[in-house]
Design brief:
Helices cover 34% and strands 17% of the residues. It has 18 helices and 19 strands. β5, α5 and β6 form a beta-alpha-beta unit. About 3% of the residues have low confidence.
C-alpha cells in the first residue's frame, strides 16, 4: 500500500492496526470516513462502553492522516468531547446518490395539518424523547408526527401514541417504507442530541422534503441558510416545539421552499471529490544507535537477547549490559561492541536508567535479559521515527500484548503504553531519573502527563516475558453520564 491512500470507515477500533501500521510505516496514508463513534454513542445513550475499545477508537481518529467528514460542527464537537485535537479534516460527503423527489412540495395551508415524520433508532441519542415532549408542548396545534423505528425507547413512543392521537408509531421501516413515509410528510424531523450526519436527512432532501434539524454535527452544513429546511435553536424539547410552531404558522413560507431540498441535495452530490495529500516516503534517519540490556539473573536469557541484537538488520554498534547485582556475566565483554556495568541490587528500572545515562547516542534500544527483538525491529522502528520525529519511543506488539502507546488517559487504569522493550530517545529518561519498580505502566503514565507520545508497530517484532496488567476502570455508565453533561454538543 506504500505511496497511496486507504479509506476506512466505522467501526473505527477495528482499524487500529491499520493506522498504527501507517504511522510507523513509509508512504501509506489513511483516510477515515467519519460516522458516529461508538464511545460517543454510548455516552449519549447512557450505556457502558469498553474502555480499551474506546481508546483504540480515539487513537484511529487522532492518527489518521485525514478525517473525511460532512463539515459543519463535526470535528469541533468531537474535539470538545475528547479534549484534544483530532486528525485534519477534509470535507467529503461521499456518494449521495441521485435525487428522486417530487418537483413540488405537498400542499399546506393555514387550515391544513402539518405532517411530520421521524425515521431512525428510538434511543436517547436520536432526540426522540425530546421530540415527543415537543409534541406535548404544542398542545392542540394541528400537527401530526409519524414515528418509524425501533429501539430502547419504543415503549415511550407507544405510550405517547396511546395518549396523543396526533402521534403514531409504525415500528421499524425498510428503506422503501422509510422513503414512502418521508414522501407522505411535509417535513422530516432529524433531531439527534449529536450525530455526524444521519442518513435519513440526506434521503429526505433527495426526496425533496425539507428537514427540521437540531444544530449539531454535519446537520449544520447540510441544512444551511438556503431552502433545504430549518435548524432549531438547540436540542431541547422547547427548541423543537418553537421551530415546529414557526413552520405551522407560515404555510406560505413552507410552500416557497419549492424544489429547494432537492436542489440542495444535487448541489452537495455534485461537489468534486477532494484531493488527498499522499505523504512522501522518507529516508531513514542517520542516527547513532546504542543498546542497553539489563541482566536480570538468567544468563541464558541474556545470551539470547545479545544474539538477537547482533542479528539486527540495522547495526547497533554498541551494547551496554547492566548487571543488577546478579554476577556471573563478566565474560560478556568478550563479545564485539559489548561493555559491562555493574551496580548493587537496585531493581530493573534503576539499572535501565544507569545504562541509558552511560550509553549516550541518539537512540537507545532498551531491553531486559530475555527480551528478543526480531531482526527487522530496529529498522522498522527507525521508519517510525522518520515518519514522526516527535516520537519519544517506538515499540511493537509482543507475545502478550497489543499496546496503544502513550495515547490516552486510559493509561492510568491499564497497561496500554507497551512493554519496557523499545527504541527510545535517551532524553526521555532525563525527565524520569527515578523510575521506581519494573512496571512499564508507571513510566508510560509519566510520559503521558508530560505530553510525550510513543508509537507501536502492529506486528509481533518483540518477544518478551509476560508482564501482568492493571486494575479495571471506574464504572463506565456513570462516567458516560458525567461526560455527556460536560460537552457542548451544539454548534456555536
Amino acid at each position: 500500500m506504500d505511496g497511496g491512500f486507504v479509506e476506512l470507515s466505522a467501526p473505527f477500533a477495528e482499524h487500529l492496526a491499520t493506522v498504527q501500521g501507517a504511522r510507523t510505516g513509509d508512504g501509506t496514508a489513511v483516510a477515515v470516513r467519519l460516522s458516529l463513534p461508538d464511545e460517543v454513542r454510548g455516552v449519549l445513550d447512557g450505556v457502558a462502553t469498553d474502555p480499551a475499545r474506546d481508546a483504540a477508537e480515539r487513537f484511529v481518529l487522532r492518527h489518521a492522516d485525514v478525517l473525511l467528514t460532512p463539515g459543519g460542527d463535526v470535528v469541533a464537537a468531537l474535539e470538545r468531547f475528547y479534549g484534544e485535537p483530532l486528525a485534519p479534516e477534509v470535507v467529503s460527503l461521499g456518494d449521495l446518490g441521485a435525487a428522486a423527489g417530487d418537483p413540488e412540495l405537498p400542499w399546506l395551508d393555514e387550515h391544513g395539518t402539518l405532517r411530520l415524520v421521524f425515521v431512525g433508532d428510538l434511543a436517547p441519542r436520536t432526540g426522540i424523547r425530546e421530540l415527543l415532549d415537543a409534541m406535548a408542548l404544542l398542545g392542540d396545534a394541528d400537527v401530526t408526527l409519524t414515528v418509524r423505528g425501533a429501539g430502547p425507547l419504543a415503549s415511550e413512543v407507544a405510550t405517547a401514541a396511546a395518549r396523543d392521537r396526533r402521534v403514531s408509531h409504525g415500528g421499524p421501516a425498510t428503506a422503501e417504507e422509510a422513503s414512502l413515509a418521508v414522501r407522505d410528510a411535509h417535513a422530516a424531523v432529524v433531531c439527534p442530541r449529536w450525530d455526524v450526519l444521519p442518513g435519513i436527512a440526506v434521503r429526505a432532501l433527495a426526496l425533496n422534503r425539507p428537514v427540521l434539524a437540531t444544530p449539531v454535527g454535519g446537520l449544520v452544513e447540510l441544512i444551511g441558510p438556503d431552502r433545504s429546511g430549518w435548524l432549531a435553536a438547540g436540542t431541547a424539547a422547547a427548541d423543537l416545539a418553537a421551530a415546529i410552531a414557526d413552520i405551522r404558522a407560515d404555510p406560505d413560507g413552507y410552500l416557497r421552499l419549492g424544489d429547494g431540498p432537492r436542489a440542495r441535495h444535487t448541489a452537495l452530490a455534485d461537489r468534486a471529490a477532494p484531493a488527498l495529500p499522499v505523504p512522501a516516503p522518507r529516508a531513514l534517519p542517520d542516527l547513532d544507535l546504542r543498546a542497553v540490556v539489563v541482566h536480570t539473573g538468567d544468563r541464558r536469557a541474556l545470551e539470547r537477547t545479545l544474539d538477537a541484537v547482533a542479528a539486527s538488520d540495522h547495526p547497533v554498534p554498541q551494547v551496554t549490559v547492566v548487571d543488577d547485582g546478579h554476577g556471573g556475566v563478566a565474560d560478556v565483554e568478550r563479545r564485539q561492541g559489548v561493555r559491562l556495568l555493574a551496580q548493587t541490587p537496585s531493581g530493573v528500572a534503576a539499572a535501565r536508567n544507569l545504562g541509558v545515562a552511560v550509553a549516550g547516542g541518539d537512540l537507545t534500544l532498551v531491553l531486559d535479559g530475555g527480551d528478543v527483538p526480531e531482526p527487522g525491529f530496529v529498522g522498522r522502528a527507525l521508519r517510525a521515527f522518520a515518519r514522526d520525529p516527535r516520537l519519544a519511543y517506538v515499540t511493537s506488539w509482543t507475545d502478550h500484548e497489543r499496546p496503544l502507546g502513550t495515547e490516552d488517559a486510559l493509561i492510568d487504569a491499564a497497561d496500554v503504553g507497551g512493554p519496557p522493550a523499545a527504541l527510545v530517545r535517551p532524553e526521555v529518561f532525563e525527565h524520569h531519573p527515578r523510575l521506581d519498580g519494573a512496571r512499564a505502566r508507571w513510566f508510560h503514565q509519566r510520559l503521558w502527563r508530560l505530553g510525550l507520545r510513543g508509537a507501536v508497530i502492529p506486528e509481533l517484532l518483540l518477544h518478551t516475558a509476560s508482564r501482568p496488567g492493571a486494575g479495571a476502570p471506574d464504572d463506565a455508565a456513570l462516567r458516560a453520564a458525567h461526560r455527556a453533561r460536560a460537552v457542548r454538543w451544539t454548534a456555536a
